[in-house]
Amino acid sequence: MKLKELQQLVAKGESETLEFKKSTGQRTRIAETLCAFLNGKGGKVIIGVTDQGEIIGQTIGQGTLEGLYQEINKLEPAMVAETQKVELADHKVVLVLSVSEGQTVYTFDGRPFMRQGPTTVRMPQDHFRAELDRRATRPSPWEVLPAEKCSLDDLDHDQILTTLNEAIRNQRLQEPGHRDPEKTLIGLGLMNDSGITNGAMALFAKSDSIFADYPQCCLKMARFKGLNKNEFIDSQIVHANALELFVRGQEFLIRHLPVASTFEEGNPYRIDIPALPTLATREALANALIHRDYSSRGGSISLAVYDDRVEICNFGGLHFGMKVEQLLGPHESHLWNPKIANVFYRRKIIETWGRGTNRIIEAMQEQGLPEPIFTSEGCDFRVTFKLSASDRGAKATATPQ
After folding, report:
1. Can you give the pLDDT at residue 37?
2. Angle, vertex CA 16, rays to CA 30 and CA 357, nearest 5
3. What is the pTM (predicted TM-score) of this model?
4. Residues in Cβ contact with 98 at an 8 Å cutoff, skipping those fewer than 6 apart
């Protein structure tokens, strides 16, 4: 999160989903509020902002964070709050802790909390029982349902351990003291007493295990000749787990996106500049894999390259009543597949939740390119990147296979 975004967020004032805390010295109240957000619609606790909305920050040391996380660890069941740091001019830091709505009712230090407007209060017992009943009887998200007919043997264990090691290296997971695939999946919420979940298959399934039972784990890619789908130059359909599809999609774009070449004074080597910023297309592809609706076996993600544009489309449309207009500025993060998103975050494929569309827009602006077009029609959500006339004349870096 950038300072400008923080200022815009703080300007909204405290609410049902936003709380200010002056410092981490209020760590008990911070944990109680996170508990309330988990039991509500989700939300953010901003640490380093006064009740009056003044951004003051604080000096953050390792001991400071350890004390805060020790308090947060009293939340049950165990959870991980997304943590963002915003650097201020005087070397102080503002912390932003974010959580989404929980799948069950959470307690802090054995007590449940809830939000009443901008205030955190103890949850009454009758409300607690009602919430337990409501959350226990609502439909389970696809990613946490048991993966029927599948077992640990159907997963790529190397990919699981790579995820664990990358998360530790990226400082997005503390060292667990083991390298066991089963324990890793349990820690990521992708395995329980019933076995592995659909989310585990979507993320880590071996390619030869995924086609029959998970045909929706598919990426359709095409390079069309001209401006429509009448004739194509290259076409591929890949069935694989989400992490592999992410890699294959990027490789396809590298192969087919136009590249302009230039030279800098004093540098004898040619500099190749892709027609679209890699950060933008990478983020759009990651978002499609994270937010799509996997519950439909007939759905897929498509990546299409035309002479004048690139389109990345995922099945499922916008969720939680979101409108396209909300994606163009700071907005709350509502995750349709939080377990899958969590793995992408820990692998550092995405930097944070709820910032994907903003990062795409910023990357295009920084390269002086037109902003992407976001559209949601029926079950499809589409990101369209326009290619300029000069881009169309540029040569690709490799010949399509």
Report:
1. 94
2. 95
3. 0.66
4. 42, 43, 44, 81, 82, 84, 333, 352, 353, 354
